[in-house]
Amino acid sequence: MSDVTKAIEEIVRAAGTMMREAFNDPRKPAYSLKGRQDYLTVTDGAVERFVRGEVERRFPGDGVLGEEDGGAVDGARLWIVDPIDGTANFARQIPHFCISLGLMVNGRLEAGAIFEPMHNELFIAERGQGAWCNGARMRVSSQTELPAASVEIGWSTREPTATYLGLIQRSMEAGCSVRRAGSGALGLAYVAAGRSEAYAEAHINAWDVAAGLLLVEEAGGRVNDFWADGGLRRGNAVLATNAALAEQIGVLTGIALK
């Protein structure tokens, strides 16, 4: 494990402790809405400020792009953080949420981690070094049949409801089991871990996927070119699949894979 990957693990584990303590606080996390079904808690901001401080201390001069406070995206080295992916779950006392932290160097993801604090699961990857969950090597599912596949389809208020329902309908008609758990980052991690065959969403932001896309590729899966057409700044559609079903799921979702 490189010094960068060690630093990522230390940062996300410390952030996870903050999240777990807030979740377990008897007063429960208070929340507000930034928009339709767009939850915000004080813990989101606190975690992001912590991560920014750690990056500045450990890697002076590196940029940070976060969900809550934004950031410049033009530097050679950019850290991309979602302090709590799955804030609606966090706010409503559903223990399915995580922190996602990825490092992009000259436009390419090089390392990243997703930490799910309620079950103490660390998903971490470094380019060329594989993907790991709590020290065990991850590999995508070997499932080859759509009627036996499990697909998670994320929902975004930025796309028409009909687009989401169309994805669900086509997947179910092909025989897939369809789920939605409320965290795109964990959805990608679960593809890398072989727990799902695919994760798809018509629009998602860069901070949700910056670690997960690398996890899937390093675990032997396939992903779309999320970063094309301004994905870093504006978000994009996302698709991550196991290798065996990649072509079929690409056609099914209408999202082209690399």
UniProtKB/TrEMBL annotation:
Positions that bind Mg(2+): E67, D82, I84, D85, D208
Pfam families reported in the protein's UniProt record: Inositol_P
Nuclease in keyword set: no
Pathway assigned to this chain's UniProt record: Polyol metabolism; myo-inositol biosynthesis; myo-inositol from D-glucose 6-phosphate: step 2/2
Reaction catalysis annotation: a myo-inositol phosphate + H2O = myo-inositol + phosphate
Keywords (A to Z) from UniProt: Hydrolase, Magnesium, Metal-binding
EC code: 3.1.3.25
One GO term of the biological process aspect: phosphatidylinositol phosphate biosynthetic process
Keyword Plastid: no
MF terms (GO), sorted A to Z: inositol monophosphate 1-phosphatase activity; metal ion binding
Cofactor(s) needed for function: Mg(2+)
Classification via PANTHER family: INOSITOL MONOPHOSPHATASE (PTHR20854), INOSITOL-1-MONOPHOSPHATASE-RELATED (PTHR20854:SF4)
Protein family according to the UniProt entry: Belongs to the inositol monophosphatase superfamily.
The protein, known as: Inositol-1-monophosphatase
